[in-house]
Amino acid sequence: MTTTPDRTLLARLTTSCEIHLPGDPGYDAARIPWNTAVDQRPAAVAIPRSVAEVQDVVRAAAATGLRVAPQSTGHGAAALGEGSLADVVLLRLSGLTGVTVDPGAGTARVLGGTLWRDVVGAAAQHGRAVLHGSAPDVAVAGFVLGGGLSFYGRRHGLAANSVTAIEVVTADGTLVRATAEQDRDLLWALRGGGGNLGVVVAIEIGLLPYADVFAGMLLWDRERAGDVVPAWVEWTRTAPESATTSLRVMSFPPIPELPPFLSGRDIVVIDGAVLESDETAAELLAPLRALEPELDTFGRIPATAVLDMHMDPPEPSPAVADHAVLGPLDAAGVAAFLAQVGPGTTSGLTFAELRQLGGAFARPDAAGGALSHVPGSYALFCVAMAPTPQAAVAGRAAAFSVVRALSAWSQTGLVPTFTETRVDTSRFYDGDDWSALCRVRDAVDPGRLFVANHGL
Ligand SMILES: Cc1cc2nc3c(=O)[nH]c(=O)nc-3n(C[C@H](O)[C@H](O)[C@H](O)COP(=O)(O)OP(=O)(O)OC[C@H]3O[C@@H](n4cnc5c(N)ncnc54)[C@H](O)[C@@H]3O)c2cc1C
What we know:
Blueprint: H1 7-13, E1 18-20, H2 27-31, E2 44-47, H3 51-63, E3 67-71, H4 78-81, E4 88-92, E5 99-102, E6 107-111, H5 116-124, H6 140-145, H7 153-156, E7 163-169, E8 175-179, H8 184-193, E9 199-206, E10 212-221, H9 225-238, E11 243-251, E12 266-274, H10 278-289, E13 295-296, E14 299-302, E15 319-326, H11 331-341, E16 351-356, E17 378-385, H12 389-405, H13 433-444
Parallel strand pairs: 2-4, 3-4
Antiparallel strand pairs: 1-2, 5-6, 6-9, 7-8, 7-9, 10-12, 10-13, 10-14, 11-12, 11-16, 15-17, 16-17
Helix pairs in contact: 1-3, 8-13
The structure holds flavin-adenine dinucleotide (FAD).
The site of flavin-adenine dinucleotide has 32 residues, from strand 3, helix 6 and strand 9.
């Protein structure tokens, strides 16, 4: 690319697409990601409402010497925001949404910027579920392109493995439909390769046969963490693949917007789904219920209600985070975790989470993509609210402190969707898969037009 970036020319070349340039009245609102701690300042923000407009923006950016960063919601904006976006068009997919469910084929076709909330709702109308994550307003695209850990995942694997076709606008502006039959390498690469290969404008995912599931949460005061954390870790050693759970130690400020059971409190929460009959699920949960939680919402609920279970923030929020994948935790590992976030500590974190891995999460899927499994026992995810730059610095230090304290139990691998900093991306993949992924990227985007939050 030898041309000088020309933002005004970009706006002229993309005559129909909504474009915001720095200084325009709409620029600031358009550039703010879901994670409002991230101050992304691109050369332009484009909000296409059709595939043709996406193609237009990609071609115009290439012609004007700019690069393109696809973004759906900005939940995963943190790593992108670490670099300069001065020569980058932020291509936001929020104007390209929609879901079509084909119950006969057992699939849903989802447009590029669609949120899980809409897909879960549409699938539920046909008595089906999908491999969504904890938050309703995360987009399908960023989630599945980064693997995707669902509360159904220990039985059904990474969400990326449920993808059967992806429609993507590549660096020359061509629309390609990648399936197992055509452009197979591209489908393989996209499933785990993130936004490095093009702008995803549609994804086909498989449906699961659940209209309702046994799911919910158990809640204790943090004073009980010394009993609850070791008991849950012990429980996870033998829990069947039908159960996918998370344990979080959480701290909430005393604010009236929160319900009394959260406001001003430090708590321990175990939540998740158990894909069994009510009787079997109750038997499985008995050792955890024996710890007498003050709140127990586990029971059979509609698949749509699983989106409310994890208490994720309902609005865009400023947050910083750190992450590691842990192997099995022994008593010393549990003690190290509790020393950081257990009773009597002031970690400064909003939560420290151990997300249960193993089961189908850990098994390579021969029909899957570049990222088809995550070896390990737990995904550690530490998050702090960061309403100011000073709070962000303190929050990053607090999150890193927990990750460092658990380093003796850490593995080298990382989960892309839980990684909020720039890292060596070969850590996401097995063996030669990173090199193979780079080869596909070099073939489809030799000029490195696309900028992903996790660049290859
Ligand atoms: C509250 C909350 C809850 C979460 N829960 C879970 C969970 O349960 N399980 C889990 O695995 N993760 C979870 N995550 C992490 C989340 O899945 C990732 O941040 C994911 O990348 C978000 O996808 P997005 O498209 O919404 O975000 P974005 O920031 O828009 O996208 C992230 C990256 O994906 C790529 N991308 C996005 N859309 C496109 C597209 N249309 N075409 C090409 N590339 C694209 C880009 O490289 C982009 O930088 C959670 C995050 C938050 C903040």
